[in-house]
Structures are given as structure tokens and as C-alpha cells.
Amino acid sequence: MIKKYLNRSEGFTLVEMMIIAPIVILLIGAFIALLVSLTGEALSSRGADALSYDVQNTLDQIELDVQRSSAFLAVNDIASSSTGQGYGDTTTAGSSVDFTNITVGGGSGASLIIKSYAINGNRNNPATNLVFLANAPNDCTDPAIYAENTPMSINIVYFIDTNGTLWRRTIMPLNYTSASVICGTAPWQQATCITGYNGASRPHCKAEDVKLLDGVSTATFVFNYYASADASTANTAAVNASSDNATRNTALQSTNTVQIDISASKTIAGRDITRTGTLRATRLQ
Predict the structure, then answer these.
(1) Count of structural domains within the chain
(2) CA-CA distance, 267 to 47, in Å (whole number)?
(3) Three-state DSSP state, 145
(4) Domain extent for 216
(5) 151 domain residue, yes or no
(6) Is position 31 within any domain?
(7) Residue 222 three-state SS
(8) Which helix (H) or strand (E) holds 29?
């Protein structure tokens, strides 16, 4: 009997295996589910942080542009027909469709259009580095005299394309680097156009538009204008869709502050993430 017991094979019986196997499978499945959940949480958390950063970075850029601007516009006042930098820009032919600060059927969605000045050097002190137009009225022989000329204006446009991406475009006058147009050093700003533009067919373009945010729309990129930083009532005439460009521009002349509300969304690891931000920025000029 002792010898027979020592020679017995040890192991699980078939019944025991049938009981244990499902338990092991359930434990493995639970462990895998936990790993997937933890990975998804980490990815979504990282993505949410990145999206929050992008929203805040966009608001910071808008605030800087507004502070240095001279006016808000209902429509870009540098004609797209001359520069080809209009809405719906193409890589070769450009576009002559002007941007508007309201949604226009067949035209642009509501775009934030800022009128600013071209500067030729120190971005931290633009007031002393303005680019002046030649013969407006003085010639360019004496800096002390042509500093009394009309400064060159530019347009900065924040717009949303058909893919739900928010872009920043700099619209420059035609031949803005020409000695026949300006006095002194050329502007540091450059005309920007759609990503991948053809430089041979679009010589006016010098750089690509700045991509700011994905996952936005004209419904989640909202702006309203105010008479001052402390004003509590928005100027509704400035965004009246029933008014023409001239009427809205007149209304905008009495405003120096804009409030921006942005909401951007994206899907990360199967989770829908949305981040919002609000900014009220005031022109300093």
C-alpha cells in the first residue's frame, strides 16, 4: 500500500480543470479590462491636458493680437481680390471671397477680423517700429519726416475651415515689401495662405497659416464686441446678420473690447473630451 501510494500520479482531475479554467479565464479577462481602462484613462487625461493647453494658447494669441490692433472689422479691408487670401483659399488659385464677422451663405463663417499695423522689428515695442507707406505724403529720404506718413495696415483673421479647424491668417497688402510701397525695412509680418500653397503660382504668400485648434465650429467659436473692458452689454449691431458690412463696421467703431468663447472637442481612447475657454481682450490703441 505504501509503495502504491508513492507511485500515484499527482495532478488535477478533469472535473477540477473544468471548474478552475473558467475562473482563471475570468481573472485574466478582468486583469486585461483593468489594463485597458487604466491605459484609456491615462491617454484621455493626457489628451485633455493637451487640449486645455491648446485652447489657452489660442486665447493668449488672440489677446496679444487684439491688444496690438487698431480696430475690429466686419470684413477684411485689404481686398482678397488683389491678394488671393480670401476664405476657401486654394493652393494654386487662392480665393477672392472676403472674410466676414458673421456667417454669410456661400461665404465665410463668422470670423474674427482684426486691423493692425505692420512693424519692422521689435515685436515687444511695435509703436516705435511702424512701417510707413511711401509718399503718404512724404518721400522716404528722411526717417524723421516719413515717420509722419500713414502706417501700413494689415489684417489678422481667425477663421474656421470646413474641417472644423481654427486658423490664424495674416493678410498683407499687395507688394508689401516693395520699396515703392514702403519706407525703410520691410515688415516682419508675412502674408500667410493655406497649408501647402504653391509658391510659384502664389508668390504673394510667404508662409502657411497658423493652425490653432481642431474640433471647433462657428457654433463653438463665438465672439461679441463691447464698448469697453467694463461694459456688460454687447454691441449687437456689430454682429447683426441682417446688416451690411458698412453698417456693422460703423457699429464696430464704437467698440474696443471683444469677448471670445471657445469650445473644442476630440475623441481620445474612445472618450469624448471637450474643453472650453473664455477671454475678454481690449485694444490698447
Answers:
(1) 1
(2) 9
(3) helix
(4) 37-282
(5) yes
(6) no
(7) strand
(8) helix 14-67
Residue 221: pLDDT above 90? yes
State the chain's mean pLDDT as an integer: 88
**CA–CA gap between residue 154 and residue 117 (Å, rounded):** 6
- Through-space distance between the first and last CA atoms of the chain, rounded to whole angstroms: 106
Query: Quick check: 2 pLDDT over 80?
Result: no
Residue 178 lies in a domain: yes
Beta strands in 69-209 (DSSP E): 71-73, 112-117, 132-133, 153-160, 165-171, 182-183, 192-193, 207-208
Query: Among candidates 171, 179, 25, which has minimal Cα distance to 99?
Result: 171
Whether the predicted pLDDT of 6 surpasses 60:
no
pLDDT band at 77; cut points 50, 70, 90: very high
Amino acid 47: pLDDT? 79
Q: How far apart are CA 100 and CA 74, in angstroms?
A: 6
- Residue 50, pLDDT > 90, answer no
Residue of 71, 159, 57 lying closest to 109 (CA atoms):
159
Cβ atoms of 98 and 80 within 8 Å: the answer is: yes
187 and 179 in contact (C-beta within 8 Å)?
A: no
Residue 116 included in any domain: yes
Best CA proximity match to 284, nearest among 82, 148, 127: 127
Task: Return d(Cα 163, Cα 22) in angstroms, integer.
Answer: 48
| Cα–Cα distances in angstroms (integers) from residue 148 to residues 134, 152, 177, in the given order | 11, 12, 19
Spatial separation of the C-alpha atoms in residues 152 and 173, rounded to whole Å? 8
State the pLDDT at residue 36.
62
Query: Residue 46's pLDDT is what?
Result: 80
Residue 28 predicted with pLDDT over 80: no
In the predicted structure, residue 8 carries a pLDDT above the cut 80: no
